[in-house]
Write a structure and sequence with these properties.
By secondary structure, this protein is α/β, with parallel strands linked by helices. It is built from eleven helices and twelve strands. The chain starts with a helix and ends with a strand.
Amino acid sequence: MDSKTLKSAEALFDLAYAEDIGDGDITTNNLIPPDENKTAILVAKEEGVVAGLPVAEMVFRKFDENLIWNELMPDGSKVFPGDVLVEFKGNYRALLTGERKALNFLQRLSGIATYANLCMQEIEGLDVEILDTRKTLPGYRHLDKYAVRMGGASNHRFGLYDMVMIKDNHIQVAGGIKPAVEAIRKKIPKSIKIEVETSNLEQVQEAIDAEVDIIMLDNMSSALMIEAVALINKRAKIEASGNMTLKRIRKVASTGVNYISIGALTHSVKALDISQRIID
């Protein structure tokens, strides 16, 4: 996990600590002696792809800097019910107080990685990339996009600042695709890519004429996508977006698009079931 992602997780930990612990864990602190140590494991309870173990380790180390952490299945690993992900030893209070915060991170990120991996399985053998979107939980973008990569998919733009995306509202304000592209080109470096959202073949042709880098086919039927791909004829990269379900991905991938962006990778996460057990 890169330093930016881990730093982002540390900032989120501070928020999690404040909302969950407050003045202290009154249950654990009144039952467990302060100097007692225990060994625990994190166990997968369903099939999936694990992501977020470095974050879980960071959480526990916030409570016990002497924690012994033995990772058995690193991030990106395919796991099955009963698989032990990590065995770790530390202060008993730390293990209990840190548990929910660590699992909240780990289960969410593993859920994202798992769904991303399912999407990747649908496009096996086809020359297309699965992309995420900006539909991430506020504050979690570094982490959510990291989890997407752990599942085998790729990241789209990180934010509003690193790539131009001209959408329907921009087109309406500018008076069309061509004037929108021309206005932006005058003000940005040539190294920044320009993508335009289109919903019909007329707009696709406008985007081709404007010589944009990427043309998004937004909420088009598969049949219309095939027409659009033929019209573009490799003069721009092509992204398909909108209503991308697991059942539909392979059919869309077969139309000849280069990318399929899927908001559900991060906005509709089903957490992967993972539990902590004290074993000694």
